[in-house]
Amino acid sequence: MSDDFFLRDGGGGEVSTSSSDTDFSVMWPATCTLLFDEVHSLKTTTGLQLAVRHKSASLNVAMGKAVTPPRGDTPMTPDTLCDWQSTTKAITAIAVAVAHEKRIVDVFQPVATYWPEFRKHDVTLAHCLTHVAGLAFAGIRLVPEQSTKEDICAAIADAQPEHEPGEKACYHPYSGCYIVAECVERASGVPWSDFVRENVLKPLGVADNILLCFPTEDTFTAFKPRLAELVSRPDDTLSYADVMNHPCPASGMRATAGAVADVMACLARGGAPILKTDTLMMFTRRHRIGMLDELQGVVVDWSLGFAVDSALGGTFASSESYGHGGSQSSYALVDPEHSLSLAFAATNKPGARVHYDRVRRISDAIYKDLRLNATRHARAAPVC
């Protein structure tokens, strides 16, 4: 299998494919059946994108609605920019790895080395990337869409640690990524969004399909026709006040599943052209092992920025698979053993249990269609 399929389904069951006349349901039977069930049952998904990259196949799928009534009636397409929530953190981790390789920062050094106002001198960038810095709720009351980066960073710098670094594990919704991004920005002298664009997105050819923020209202207006909306939002029309006006390194990325999968595919291939293999292996090996995450309620290992061997891999991913999810609506996964990457985004948040069951079924269907389902693994899912 080596074709790209673009499946567009506006809710009425119509299907078209391009770049091949081969029937999508023949090439990807389990995945096709699952995605149709997801959209048409309306129990878990109203609109979705899925992209898969493997040495023997490449898939792009868009189904359902990007915007639903009463806010609009826009079909999802492969070019729609979805809201990836905390899957944004995967891009942040990759950019920090690039900065480490370029010796702009050393992730094992204290944050205060690069950010003198940050007085918690025992906290390293690695602590932040593995969610053991003891600052899980620092600045949490400041909503990124409604706050400046300066205000958020000041609140984080002033926050009192919740525990000693490395003592406990507790998922950091915002603070950890703001900390590492601020360190890279200060050390490089380059704004975070520019650093990510020049060192990650442009070299991989995805800069037009991954947006970290909308710096001006004109930028937002220009891209709005491509934006999907989470159905959990209020029924009013999406406005500039609802999106990131600064590059939040923890959440809010707008992107296509194809672009996210292409970035993850770079990792599945060994890191070129943005990272050396040694750097990639150092970043994606286990750095936090066997610790219970007090926020997510599950024992899961972490590399420097990615959950390792987590529920994102479903039943069949290898034990060295890694990735990141986004608030009950998206995830990205890399399985280096199988040279596989995938990215999924939906327009709804059905609750933790339902979402992680959706994740498992999607990953399992892909592994079955690629005939990579020989080995089973039991994996616990987060509770939030």
UniProtKB/TrEMBL annotation:
Residues 1-21 are annotated as: Disordered. It comes from the Eukaryota. InterPro entries: Beta-lactam-related, Beta-lactam/transpept-like, Diverse_Enzym_Activities. Residues 46-358 form the Beta-lactamase-related domain. Gene3D superfamilies: DD-peptidase/beta-lactamase superfamily. Coiled coil: none annotated. PANTHER family: BETA-LACTAMASE-RELATED. This is Beta-lactamase-related domain-containing protein. It comes from Pycnococcus provasolii.
